[in-house]
Amino acid sequence: MAVSTAETMNAGFRWIIGSLLLPGTIAGCGTSTEPDTSKSPPRVSETKTGPAAPTPTTAAPGTAAQATAAPSRTPHSSTPSETTSDEVRPPGTTGTDSRQELKTPDAAAAAVATLSDSSGRTRLPDDRPPVNELRLQQNGIHLVSGRRLILLTDLPVDQVAELPVLADQLFDWLQNHFGPLPAAVDGSEFQVTGHLIGDESRFRAAGLLPSSALTFKHGRHLNYQFWMYNPEFEYYRRHLLFHEFTHCFMTCESGMTDIPPLWYIEGMAEFAATHRITDSRRKPPEIEFGVLPEQFDGYEGWGRISELQRRFRPATRAQDASPKIPALADVMPDTVGSFGEDSEYATSWAVCWMIYRHPEYRRVFQPLSRLRTRQEFITEAARLRSSVELQLQTDWLLFCETLIEGFDVELSFPEHAQQTWQLSDLSDGPPFSMLLKADADWQDTGLRLTTSQQVRISVEGRYAVNDQPKPWISEPQGVSIEYYRHKPLGQIVAILINEADGFVSGRIEVGPESIITAEQDCSLWLQVNDSSASRRNNSGTAEVRLSAP
Length: 549
Description:
Elements lengths: L63 E3 L29 E2 L8 H10 L17 H6 L3 E4 L3 E5 L3 H4 L2 H16 L13 E6 L2 H6 L13 E4 L2 E5 L4 H17 L11 H12 L1 E5 L6 E4 L14 H9 L15 H4 L10 H16 L3 H5 L8 H13 L2 H14 L16 E2 L11 E6 L5 E7 L4 E7 L2 E2 L8 E2 L4 E6 L2 E3 L2 E7 L4 E2 L3 E2 L3 E5 L4 E7 L12 E7 L2
Parallel strand pairs: 1-3, 4-5, 5-7
Antiparallel strand pairs: 2-10, 3-4, 6-7, 8-9, 11-23, 12-22, 13-21, 13-23, 14-15, 16-17, 18-19, 18-20, 18-22
Helix pairs in contact: 1-12, 4-6, 6-7, 7-10, 8-10
């Protein structure tokens, strides 16, 4: 079987977030509403700062600078074209419903409600050591104070003054997503001390580095503190700070002694930290968390999508090259072991982004955000996942295959067929017919092929693959004015999927007509070749007919 090539990957900036975490000392569980009656200042041995001021102010080394606080598309394909006297669809009675009912099972919902009961749950006491402002001043370290974040750094204050304010916004986002934090054992308000390190020797002299056992390459947290080296790029400075702050939030009930699996802990820290400043003119600027970058520029240093592309898409044009996408079981293991490869952060981010941004899966998996301890999370995650297992596995493979900056949530998630069928259902009758939409990404034909089985694909029609400066009209062979993934824009392409084995073929050129041979049992998917970020300016359909050769 001939399969498509994948384009050579752009060399993106890739940073490893070395958050290899040490166990905490106190275990806890559950959620309850955090009291909001006091504002705890940072613990300072000689001069204590007061409550956060309305706007950030600069400070000399050793003094405190204070700061304040679309319609969704379901994953089901549209109805195929009406049949005529010489072409039919397989009878519905012979097919199998390919879609799973994407809803939270009642039993799981009830269990989650019970498990997330806030009664009797607390978070760890504030274990941060006092800050010696005199020692900070002697070593050229500034203290920038906010309600939720106290930042110690040797960078110029004007470069970091807004970070505590942005951390306040992140705290609100985290509480909205995960639910309110429970009260602390000691009654203190949630606040984190972050160390943003430019010159490590200054922090060593000030006694602010963690134990030598707590090693890190880029960032590391422990209870209510984190440490991070200053990255090269401004975006990634904020991102890494948000990542470590999220760790402090997610583990403040039990440290690292009883937490969900690391794919979720790290994936959600990446998910929350990936952000977009929506209005930089406002003070403080407005910020959006949990985004998927719309382009590469502006997110320098992050590079998770580039890492996924580098790992999953072949770097050659070999026609038999296929993506190497890991199965969900490998991406979502029930373990809390080591975690450090770029690809592990990338896949964990991708699966968390998918389950919380997909219009249906976010409803299924939202209860997971209320679960704090490992076993309750593993049990309920397995129960929730079982209700959508096969479809989720397929969508994961296709999501990774097509993912790019600017991925369109409404148009680019896979569309599943109403029913599955086999070529034998056609008997000696007319071919199966469906309309293939130019503005949708991968669309399931419903056809299930067995190993070595062949299918003939015939395509007719004209559709638009761009609308500027006027519509670009394409036919099934595509337009030669532009290429995507080494194939003409607008060309009809196919892909074969076996979700059980994690098999994904490369993109197979179809054009006006092609015969495809299945290497193994698989489903047949089609699309009008285009980027998942450029579907919105497409329009029209092509008529597809499937038959035995």
